[in-house]
Amino acid sequence: MAAGLFEAGADEAGELAAAPEAPVTPTMPLALRLNPETRKHVLNSDGAFASLHPVDSQVVNALFIVSKALRSSPETGNGLRGLGSPRSPRARAFVEDQVRLALKDLISGGDIQVLGIEFEPSSYTAKVGVDYVNLRLPLALQVKQRVNSSL
Fold first, then answer.
1. What is the rounded distance in angstroms from the CA atom of residue 97 to the CA atom of residue 118?
2. Of 143, 141, 151, which Cα lies nearest the Cα of 113?
3. Among 86, 87, 85, 65, CA closest to 77
4. 28-150: what CATH class?
5. What separation in angstroms does the CA of 113 have from each of 56, 58, 59, 70, 74?
């Protein structure tokens, strides 16, 4: 509703209405890359959040939850709390079972194929690595990937 004719122009209080701009829709990544050791999201060189395929994000989160790097409710994960000494004879089998249990939904859903689980014990800690292929990527992009975690 115009207020009338003014010396500065014809419109409300003599100001011309600004032309509407096209809305900018930000492109959000499908999944954010998280560094569980620092518990912060990774940023690209341009300051935007680094993206990750959702299946890869689920693998990373499952491994870090099972290895106690990210806390969770008891029924969700942290299964490796039951590991006594990393040098015990049953440690390797226990770790492999817990990692496969953490990834079972992704494996049975056809999202990933686990190629191997690596377990490197040391005196008081251990390192766990999972080699897998993301089957939800196009065939040309299905390459072996590795996720590592420390216990």
1. 12
2. 143
3. 65
4. alpha beta
5. 12, 13, 11, 23, 26
Strand-pair partners of 9: 6
d(CA 45, CA 23): 25
The pLDDT value given to residue 3: 55
User: Per-domain residue ranges for the chain?
Assistant: 28-150
> Alpha carbon of 20 to those of 9, 11, 115: distances in Å?
19, 16, 54
**pTM passes above 0.85:** no
* Strand bridging mode 126-134 / 112-121: antiparallel
CB 129 within 8 A of CB 118: yes
116 pLDDT band (50/70/90 cuts)?
A: very high
Position 25: which residue type?
T
Q: What percent of the chain has pLDDT over 70?
A: 75
